[in-house]
Design brief:
The protein is α/β, with parallel strands linked by helices. It has one domain: Rossmann fold (3-Layer(aba) Sandwich). Helix content is 45%, strand content 16%. The chain is built from 9 helices and 7 strands. The protein has a 7-stranded parallel sheet, sandwiched between helices. The longest helix has 22 residues, at 103-124.
Amino acid sequence: MSLDGKSAIVTGAGKGIGRKIAETLSERGASVMICDIDKEAAASVSAEINENGGKTAHVAADVSDVGDLVRMVEATLSAFGGIDILVNNAGVLSASPIEQTDEREWDKIMAVNLKGAFFAIKEALPHMGKNAGKEGGSIISIASLAGRMGGYQNGVAYAASKAGLIGMTMSVARKLAPLGITVNAVAPGTTQTDIISAFSEEKIAGLVANIPLGRLGQPGDVAETVAFLASEGARFITGAVIDVNGGMFMG
């Protein structure tokens, strides 16, 4: 699954799953633009990967701001000369019940999780695939188990945004196939991140009890799937949703 000579953008790469994706793509040989709303986190991840022999640059961007996405693409072209892989990982989580979800929260979740992914694709598109005189390109969006079946702990707005991301993935895949660009989504289940680390042992045990494989997911489980979808071995896969959830959802 070598990615030698490829250049990638990973949004929300300052921590958690996004950070692991950036590290894994770098290990496979890709040059990676570390994008995060937290400038210091993006710079720290970039520096650490570079110290370990990788090639990265970093940019601070709020994916809900189209102007920031334009800057992100421009920074990537300046650093690496092109874009081969786009990973839409940035997202915000919400567990608010229906009665407590207001318009501001709904709009923020949709702006980051869905609008941000669409406009990142739109801004990167002129520099990918046959648009850029290349044979292929890969767009991978991080959806969620919640977008497949409503989730267990997540709010309606979050589940709706991730379901929308899945539908958008399929639609964009059809549109971009003639350009040689594959478009797929990865839908993680409950994954060991900083959010989960703050849970009590009892709550974590309850989550694990719902996972047939008997453990929480790890960021690396998601990252390895992303790396595969970005590789030449996945060139005939497009419009797919790959479930990385230990068997919580099968269908």
